[in-house]
Amino acid sequence: MKRTAFTATIDQLKEKIINGEWPPGSRIPTLQQISKELEVSVPTVREALRTLESQGNVSIEHGRGMYVRNDPLLLEDPTGNLKELEDISLVKLLAARILIEPELAALSAEHATLTQVKQLRELADRMVQQMEEGGPFLDTDLAFHRLIAESAQQPVLLRMMESIYPLLSEGRKHTNTLPHMRTKASNYHVLIAIAIEERHSDQARQLMYHHINDMLEALKK
């Protein structure tokens, strides 16, 4: 399975900690420096570091910088207990997502910071542009859903979503090939971002539900 730039970046950053290039307590280079070194976009680096932060491996301190934690949680694979789910069907994955992500969208509308709201809109607009240009947008899609989970301020649910990201990544490759699904998905993202920006939690919940349900129903046909 070909790794996305997002998952590959996470692995490369973890390796820097494992091999001692970034020792515990050390300051991490800037997003721009890492982006140049790894030859990936700054948004990809930012989301990869946020993933490592949620896993307890790095600390992002606004205004001070980014640091390797003194007690990184052994860089354990969050999907280690999900290996038995590698053959799970896409229908079952979407059925599970529809139980969780609409509520995360509603909570995001209630708790997202102004910065997170702005980032969500930027990701949604970027996905529309990438789709129109015919370029890849899988990383942008995943970053959008991850930021919603993060901004909901429910760390347990965030960790649950983190644990199935590899499954989500593979699932997106299939759902994006469904008729008109890429256009519908990008439009849903914009509408969800607007609902969150306007603090309409019920609307955000319903839009996320219909976004996932559209994919689910298309696969059932």
UniProtKB/TrEMBL annotation:
Residues 3-71 form the HTH gntR-type domain. Keywords: DNA-binding, Transcription, Transcription regulation. SMART domains: FCD, HTH_GNTR. Gene3D superfamilies: GntR ligand-binding domain-like, Winged helix-like DNA-binding domain superfamily/Winged helix DNA-binding domain. InterPro entries: GntR_C, TF_FadR/GntR_C, Tscrpt_reg_HTH_GntR, WH-like_DNA-bd_sf, WH_DNA-bd_sf. PROSITE patterns: HTH_GNTR. GO terms for molecular function: DNA binding; DNA-binding transcription factor activity. SUPFAM superfamilies: GntR ligand-binding domain-like (SSF48008), Winged helix' DNA-binding domain (SSF46785). Pfam families: FCD (PF07729), GntR (PF00392). PANTHER family: TRANSCRIPTIONAL REGULATOR, GNTR FAMILY, UXU OPERON TRANSCRIPTIONAL REGULATOR. This is DNA-binding FadR family transcriptional regulator. It comes from Fontibacillus solani. The lineage of its organism: Bacteria, Bacillati, Bacillota, Bacilli, Bacillales.
